[in-house]
Specification:
The chain is mainly beta. The chain is 8% helix and 58% strand. It has a single domain, classed as Porin, CATH 2.40.160. The chain has a 14-stranded antiparallel beta barrel with strand order 2-3-4-5-6-7-8-13-14-18-19-20-21-22. The longest helix is centred in the N-terminal third of the chain and has 24 residues. It is elongated.
C-alpha cells in the first residue's frame, strides 16, 4: 500500500475516533461506564492501557515490547523498530451484576477505549528518539438508583417519599509523549496530558402529598486540567536471551479548572441556580498524581513476565467540600477521598515467534491478575477490586500487525458494610497496526 493511501486511511480513522470521543464527552444520553460507585468525585477511573496491557492484568511500567505500543510508561515509546510507524485502536464491552441486601440488577455497555499513533523522530549513534500522540478515557460517571424513605413519622405526615440519583458523563485525556533511548539500555520519557469532559449529577426527592414540595438538585460540571508524566526504563541483559527490566513513572497533581452549574428546584416554579468557577472557589479540586514501579523478566521473544505497583494519594483532592463532587448522607459523608493502590502481574508466551509453517505458534497468549484499592472510601471503609485477565493476539498479514482479544473477570466491593458488590466480565478488542514507512528505496 502506498504511503499516501496509508495516510488517508489513518486520518479517516483518527477523525472518526476523535469525533466519537467528542460526542461521548458532550452526550447526555449514553453511558461510558456504569457503577453506583461513580456517584463520587469524577466517577470510576478507567483500567489503564490498551488491549495489549489489559490482557496482562494492566502491567506495562517496565515493558519494552517492540511489537506493541505500550502507553503506561512514557519511556516505552522508544521500544520500536527504527523504521516503523505504529498505531493502536481498541474498544471494550462490559457486563455487570450488582448485588446489595438480596437485590440484584444487571448492566452492560460498549465503548471506545483508545486511539494512538507512534513514530520515530530521530536516530543517531548517541541516542534514539520517538513520539506518540493519542486519546483515551480517564473516568466515567454512570449510575441510576433510588430508595424510599422508611421513617414512619415522615410517611404519616406527608406520605411516601422517594429519593433518586442519576449521573452521566466522562473525562478523557489527550496526550503527547516524547522519549529518548540512551546507551541501548536506558530510556527516558515525558508526557503532556490534557483532561477534558462533562459530568451531570441529579438528585430528586418526590413526595406523594401534593401539598408538600419535593426538591431537585442538579450539578452540571465542565472540567479540564493539565499535567505531566515522566518515565524511566532500564534493561540489563543476562546471557544471550534473558533480560531483566526496571521501570518507574511519576505524574504530577492536576489542578481542575472549568465550572459547576448548581441548580435547586422546589415545587414547580421555585428555582435557585448558581455557576461556580473552580478557580474562584475557596476549596480547590485536584486530580491526584501517581507514582509507580515495575519489574520485567524477558526470555528472547518467547516469554515475558511483569509485575507493577502504583500508588496515588487523593486525600487532598478537595472533592468532599465542593458541591457536585461530594455525596452526603443523612448521617454524614458516605464517601471520602483516600489513597489508591494497585498491584498487577502478567505473563506473555509465544510458542515460536519465527515459525513459518504453523500459524498457532505465532499467537501471543497472555494472562494476568490485579488487586486495586479504589481512590475513595465508603463510610470510612476502603473499596477493593480484584480480577484475572486472559487474552491472545492473532497475527494479521505481515510485520507485527495483530488483532488482540481479551477478557477480564473481576469483582469490586462486597456485601459487607452496606456496600454494593459488582461482579463483572469484560471483553476488549484491539487493533495493532505496524508498518515500515520511513525507508528510501534504492535502485541500481
Amino acid at each position: 500500500m502506498k504511503a499516501g493511501n496509508r495516510l488517508h486511511i489513518l486520518f479517516a480513522l483518527a477523525a472518526l475516533v476523535l469525533s466519537s470521543f467528542s460526542l461521548l464527552a458532550e452526550d447526555g444520553g449514553s453511558y461510558a461506564g456504569f457503577t453506583p460507585y461513580s456517584v463520587y468525585g469524577i466517577g470510576d477511573l478507567s483500567m489503564p492501557g490498551t488491549a495489549y496491557n489489559k490482557t496482562m492484568g494492566g502491567v506495562g511500567i517496565a515493558s519494552r515490547n517492540h511489537r506493541f505500543v505500550n502507553v503506561l510508561n512514557p519511556a516505552a515509546v522508544t521500544a520500536r523498530d527504527s523504521l516503523a510507524f505504529m498505531s493502536d485502536f481498541s474498544i471494550y464491552e462490559t457486563n455487570k451484576i450488582l448485588s446489595q441486601d438480596g437485590r440484584k440488577s444487571a448492566n452492560n455497555l460498549f465503548n471506545i477505549n483508545n486511539f494512538l499513533v507512534s513514530f520515530p523522530i530521530f536516530y543517531s549513534k548517541a541516542a534514539d528518539g520517538a513520539m506518540m500522540i493519542g486519546i483515551k478515557p480517564y473516568s466515567a460517571t454512570g449510575y441510576d438508583f433510588g430508595y424510599y424513605d422508611t421513617n414512619p413519622r415522615a410517611i404519616a405526615t406527608v406520605g411516601n417519599i422517594s429519593h433518586s440519583y442519576t449521573g452521566l458523563g466522562s473525562i478523557y485525556q489527550v496526550y503527547g509523549t516524547v522519549g529518548v533511548e540512551l546507551f541501548d539500555r536506558v530510556s527516558l520519557g515525558a508526557e503532556f496530558i490534557h483532561y477534558f469532559g462533562n459530568i451531570k449529577k441529579t438528585y430528586t426527592e418526590t413526595i406523594s402529598d401534593a401539598a408538600a414540595l419535593g426538591i431537585s438538585k442538579v450539578s452540571e460540571m465542565s472540567l479540564s486540567a493539565n499535567t505531566a508524566k515522566f518515565g524511566l526504563q532500564y534493561e540489563q541483559p543476562v546471557g544471550d536471551k534473558l533480560t531483566f527490566g526496571f521501570g518507574a513513572v511519576y505524574s504530577l497533581d492536576a489542578k481542575l479548572g472549568g465550572f459547576i452549574d448548581n441548580s435547586v428546584t422546589s415545587g414547580e416554579s421555585s428555582k435557585y441556580s448558581s455557576v461556580d468557577t473552580l478557580s474562584n472557589l475557596s476549596t480547590r479540586a485536584f486530580l491526584a498524581g501517581e507514582a509507580g514501579v515495575g519489574l520485567s523478566l524477558v526470555y528472547g521473544n518467547k516469554f515475558r513476565a511483569e509485575v507493577d505497583y502504583t500508588r496515588s494519594d487523593w486525600t487532598r483532592s478537595g472533592f468532599e467540600g465542593i458541591t457536585g463532587f461530594g455525596v452526603n448522607g443523612a448521617s454524614g459523608p458516605l464517601f471520602t477521598s483516600g489513597v489508591s493502590q494497585s498491584l498487577r502481574a502478567g505473563v506473555e508466551y509465544i510458542p515460536n515467534p519465527g515459525d513459518i509453517r504453523y500459524y498457532h505458534k505465532l499467537i501471543a497468549y497472555r494472562a494476568g491478575v490485579y488487586f486495586t484499592q479504589e481512590y475513595f472510601n465508603y463510610t470510612g471503609n476502603p473499596v477493593y477490586s480484584r480480577g484475572i485477565t486472559l487474552g491472545v493476539t492473532l497475527p494479521v498479514f505481515r510485520w507485527n500487525n495483530g488483532l488482540t482479544i481479551g477478557m477480564d473477570f473481576g469483582q469490586r466491593g462486597s456485601l459487607k458494610n452496606n456496600m454494593v458488590s459488582e461482579t463483572y466480565v469484560g471483553f476488549s478488542l484491539g487493533f495493532n497496526l505496524f508498518d515500515v514507512w520511513f525507508q528510501q528505496p534504492r535502485y541500481e
